[in-house]
Amino acid sequence: MSLEDFFPPFAPGEPDDDNGKSRRRLPIRQIVPNLVTILAICAGMTGVRLAFEGRYELAVAMILGAAFLDGIDGRIARLLKGQSRFGAEMDSLADIVNFGLAPGLVLYSYVLNEAGSFGWICALLYTSGCALRLARFNTMLDDPKRPKWHGAFFVGVPAPAGAGLALLPMYVGFIGPDLGVPEFTAGVSAVYLVFVGLLMSSRIPTWSGKGAGLRIPRTYAIPIILVAVLYVATLISFFWETLTVTAFLYFCSIPFSWREFQKRTRRDQEFAARRETSDPVR
């Protein structure tokens, strides 16, 4: 008996080499990105455990760490030329665990439990919104008529950003303000969580940072680098305060991304209309 009798082949049906032929030996470059994705799942699930143990700051750090790993696994796959359908499916499953299930459970353990069944229902709605967002994202990737410039936008708030926004009540709680009414805080946090879930499942365009092709004047390069250094420095020195401000700035960026998306859509429509009127009648 061999391992093949116990485990199925990795990514069955996919070619393993550049010539489209299948090989018995698998390049390590195809395994590394999936290993990073598995580590992200472990981080998200560990965050849930830490929340149940009352170590909430570490729990949030684990979810944020999962978001970081989620951000680099695709880049590692492209760098190593190790993309695969298997990896794409694995990434989607990791996202629902790390950014749908884990934040809902961590936030419920932290504050939503004070709202009883209402808090639990809101946690379920948030997780459902995340699942719907991810399912729609996967189906949109197969749309051949999608304009290339759409790559600069997400449809709805992306799952990692949604998880970061969902944990905002915990950031504020770690800073220290105590309202003295746990039921009220839990109710507000529950409603807020549903709001974030709706943003994730909505069709509101948000900046993706991918495929934008942004170019900046050379004179702006040094100021932008200094701003990035300042952000990292404040993040290290005032971690929860900086995350709170970052969440609010993200909310403020949504109307601007929506306006830019509508502007580009109108430009495409005007171009299509001019082309139709300029074509000769056949």
From TrEMBL:
Coiled coil: none
Membrane topology according to the record: Multi-pass membrane protein
Ranges annotated as spanning the membrane: 31-52, 117-137, 149-172, 184-200, 220-239
Superkingdom field: Bacteria
InterPro entries per the UniProt record, alphabetical: CDP-alcohol_PTase-I (IPR050324), CDP-OH_P_trans (IPR000462), CDP-OH_P_trans_C (IPR012616), CDP-OH_PTrfase_TM_dom (IPR043130), CDP_ALCOHOL_P_TRANSF_CS (IPR048254)
Keywords carried by this UniProt record: Lipid biosynthesis, Lipid metabolism, Membrane, Phospholipid biosynthesis, Phospholipid metabolism, Transferase, Transmembrane, Transmembrane helix
Domain CDP-alcohol phosphatidyltransferase C-terminal intervals: 220-255
Subcellular location: Membrane
Main localisation: membrane
Molecular function GO labels: phosphotransferase activity, for other substituted phosphate groups
Region (Disordered): 1-23
Record has Membrane as a keyword: yes
GO-annotated cellular components: membrane
A single BP term in Gene Ontology: phospholipid biosynthetic process
Pfam families in UniProt: CDP-OH_P_tran_2, CDP-OH_P_transf
Protein family according to the UniProt entry: Belongs to the CDP-alcohol phosphatidyltransferase class-I family.
Protein name per Swiss-Prot or TrEMBL: CDP-alcohol phosphatidyltransferase:CDP-diacylglycerol--serine O-phosphatidyltransferase
